[in-house]
Amino acid sequence: MTLLKRVFDLSVALVLTILLLPVIIIISAILLIGDGRPVFFVSERMKTPQQSFSVVKFRTMRPDSDDFGATGAHKNDRITPSGAVLRKYRLDEIPQLWNILKGDMSFVGPRPPLRRYVEKFPDIYGQVLRSRPGLTGLASVYYHEHEEWLLRTATNSVETEAIYCRACVPQKARLDLIYQQHRNLCFDIMLLLRTVFKRLR
Fold it and tell me: Is the backbone peptide bond immediately before 95 cis, with ω within 30 degrees of 0?
């Protein structure tokens, strides 16, 4: 990560954290009253092929001790009503501003993968994770809806895992590597704007 990119991340994350603090408090209160504890979902993700960190989101699903792998249709019945709204507009990802402030993530980069996929596809993620994981990225903008469409057909965790590993991992990696070859601050700003307008639309 370049110094300019880090300064940009820190500056924007600080401003957004201050501006969104009332929103964070309101969402936290709604989740606490409506869904109970925990308000936040904390999960291990990989920053490099060897180094992990704890990504923080607002909780949108009922907890399940047997939960693992990618999110597909087989998990839909666990999504809470408030969680569905948060996921639709990606408001569940606001707490990741903390991860950006800490330096675990950037605003733009590959989505941070689970350890299981990094270990299963070391060659792919050895290249992808040369970029700092991001809140959004080229794959998030141009592949996320297609990924959701693919995983919507899965009826259980085995089918979800097979589709994710066969189709989603290589396609997202291809886009992440295209970003890696052309990354610069202007490209990052463009992807951030496209992410915002896509959610608003």
Answer: no
How far is the C-alpha of 24 from the C-alpha of 27, rounded, in Å?
Answer: 5
Q: How sure is the predictor about 65, in pLDDT bands with cuts at 50, 70 and 90?
A: low
d(C-alpha 195, C-alpha 189), whole Å: 10
* Nearest residue to 155 via CA among 39, 43, 75: 75
Asked whether the beta carbons of 87 and 176 are under 8 A apart, the reply is: no
Q: Compare 76 and 84 and report the one with higher pLDDT.
A: 84
CB 191 within 8 A of CB 136: yes
* 8 in Cβ contact with 185 (< 8 Å): yes
Residue 73: predicted pLDDT? 66
User: d(Cα 201, Cα 193) in Å, to the nearest integer?
Assistant: 12
Q: State the CB neighbour count (10 A cutoff) for residue 186.
A: 8
Place of tokens 């370049």: 2
Q: Kindly report the backbone phi and psi dihedral angles of residue 155, in degrees, each rounded to the nearest multiple of 5, phi listed first.
A: -105, -10
The mean of the pLDDT values for the chain is 93
The SS3 call for residue 61 is strand
User: Which residue, among 57, 112, 55, has the nearest Cα to 86 in the 3D structure?
Assistant: 57
